[in-house]
Amino acid sequence: MVLRFDAGLAGLSAERFVSDILVGRFAVAGVAIGFDFHFGLNRAGSPDYLAAQGARLGFRLVELSRDFKGTPEEDELVEITPKSVRLRKVLLKESDRKKYARQQG
Hints:
Blueprint: H1 7-10, H2 14-25, E1 30-33, H3 47-57, E2 60-63, H4 85-91, H5 94-104
């Protein structure tokens, strides 16, 4: 999934990004983030905040280490390769997989 980074997205608080984008728009089941990830207005959303929201709202958080190279064998914190179909299945709830498949042709 790709979001255009524009003034509207840049102005969202961390709380609104989680509720409106991750949960409301994409209905995520999981989120994979980089080791230095922050989000929301003024980078207020931290990995700890996102993990807490995931626990509260029912999505999983996977944090990639600084040394992540893209394969599970190279990083013990990651169970799946980010570019794989398996990650898409983890990130999308079952109800959205069919919609995603139709959009991808």
